[in-house]
């Protein structure tokens, strides 16, 4: 125990120190490491505040209420920390802490680097999000460009098919209401492509109705052309397309298309006039105006030739539609309307063929003929050819044409040829 007088003296000295603090310059000079540690804490807190603020910003794009709330709390927390440091600095001179100043400074630097790292992570995520958005925009624009290119190609093809240039389409038609058309080989080539597509399009509902009626498609295809070796079972559709084509092109080499009609004069001008008159019209509307026209007779005869009575009976359960056609009518059923699109394309091709001088010649390819790249085109691509054996024609799907000095190849299916997967 200390004497009473000595104890009182120490208490007075202690109270004297509290009432009269040391000057700041003297305190800083005495503890420079402590001041440096405090400053490091301030900078660390500022970095953390910056990181929290960036997180708050990123939570708005895209808008995420939960992230916004969490980031807001983090910003408030860092602001409170900064406020506490400010009050501590004002009310107390920097004092050494229990750990060494070097350790405090190192810890502050580590914390600051961690805050910077969080900031960079947030920025990287934000940039990645922006990149993804830009990639999505680029992909969308590419799709729009592709769609626009396809539409442009279709429009150009239609203009060429109609014989219209951009300037011509802006003008008016002639006195008969027809636009000016150039009778060129290109126009006929487009008509051939349209006819081939029409055959393919009509074969689809025909095959589907055969399936629904319970037909044996393998046996039906074999009855059309027996002993054809198909690379794939799906290729048997070409047998049905060949059947349709053979029936539709029968009589094509004759001006009358084998249709009997009295008091009809055939001239190149009249054929071209038929082509111009029918190309933009709905065939059912044409037949409604004149069901007994030469085109109407053509449609009736070809329908009865393409659609076998057994087919029709299995499809519809009766012969009502067939009897209606045989009686001179043109039913408005979906199946008959699908057929009329095919009939129109073949009729337009025939009219155009006899508009040229000299006439366009049609040629067929017999089954068993050797494949010729000059006169034939395979309907199946990616074929594996045997170098030691020339491929043989199994089916003629579409005939070929001579127009002037130009050859339009026949479309054929090659038998016994493998197809690359």
Automatic annotation (TrEMBL):
Q: Which residues form the DUF641 domain?
A: 31-157
Q: Which UniProt keywords apply?
A: Coiled coil
Query: What are the start and end residues of every segment in region (Disordered)?
Result: 1-27
Q: Does the keyword Coiled coil apply?
A: yes
Which positions are tagged coiled coil?
110-158
Which InterPro entries does this one have?
A: DUF641_pln (IPR006943), GIL1-like (IPR040225), GIL1_IRKI_C (IPR056813)
Q: Which residues form the GIL1/IRKI C-terminal domain?
A: 362-413
Question: Which Pfam families does the record match to this protein?
Answer: DUF641, GIL1_IRKI_C
Taxonomically, the superkingdom here is Eukaryota
Q: What is this protein called?
A: DUF641 domain-containing protein
* Lineage per the UniProt record: Eukaryota, Viridiplantae, Streptophyta, Embryophyta, Tracheophyta
């Amino acid at each position: 125990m200390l004497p009473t007088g000595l104890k009182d003296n120490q208490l007075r000295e202690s109270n004297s120190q509290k009432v009269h603090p040391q000057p700041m310059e003297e305190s800083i000079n005495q503890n420079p490491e402590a001041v440096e540690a405090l400053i490091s804490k301030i900078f660390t807190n500022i970095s953390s505040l910056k990181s929290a603020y960036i997180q708050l910003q990123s939570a708005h794009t895209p808008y995420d209420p939960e992230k916004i709330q969490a980031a807001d709390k983090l910003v408030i927390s860092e602001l409170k920390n900064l406020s506490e440091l400010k009050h501590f600095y004002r009310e107390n001179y920097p004092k050494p802490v229990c750990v060494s100043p070097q350790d405090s400074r190192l810890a502050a630097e580590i914390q600051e680097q961690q805050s910077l790292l969080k900031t960079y992570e947030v920025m990287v995520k934000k940039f990645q999000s922006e990149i993804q958005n830009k990639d999505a925009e680029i992909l969308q624009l590419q799709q729009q460009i592709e769609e626009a290119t396809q539409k442009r190609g279709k429009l150009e093809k239609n203009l060429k098919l109609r014989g219209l240039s951009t300037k011509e389409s802006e003008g008016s038609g002639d006195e008969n209401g027809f636009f000016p058309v150039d009778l060129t080989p290109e126009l006929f080539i487009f008509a051939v492509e349209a006819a081939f597509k029409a055959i393919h399009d009509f074969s689809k509902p025909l095959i589907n109705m055969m399936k629904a009626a319970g037909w044996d498609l393998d046996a039906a295809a074999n009855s059309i052309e027996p002993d054809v070796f198909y690379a794939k079972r799906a290729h048997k559709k070409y047998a049905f397309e060949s059947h349709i084509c053979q029936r539709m092109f029968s009589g094509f080499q004759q001006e009358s298309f084998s249709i009997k009609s009295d008091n009809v004069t055939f001239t190149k001008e009249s054929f071209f006039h038929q082509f111009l008159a029918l190309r933009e019209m709905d065939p059912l509307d044409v037949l409604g105006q004149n069901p007994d026209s030469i085109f109407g007779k053509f449609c009736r005869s070809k329908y009865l030739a393409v659609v076998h009575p057994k087919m029709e009976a299995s499809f519809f359960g009766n012969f009502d539609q067939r009897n209606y056609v045989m009686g001179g009518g043109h039913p408005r059923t979906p199946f008959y309307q699908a057929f009329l699109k095919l009939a129109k394309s073949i009729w337009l091709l025939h009219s155009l063929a006899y508009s040229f001088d000299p006439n366009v010649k049609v040629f067929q390819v017999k089954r068993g003929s050797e494949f010729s790249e000059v006169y034939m085109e395979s309907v199946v691509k990616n074929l594996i050819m045997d170098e030691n054996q020339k491929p043989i024609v199994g089916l003629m799907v579409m005939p070929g044409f001579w127009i002037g000095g130009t050859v339009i190849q026949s479309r054929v299916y090659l038998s016994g040829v493998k197809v690359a997967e």
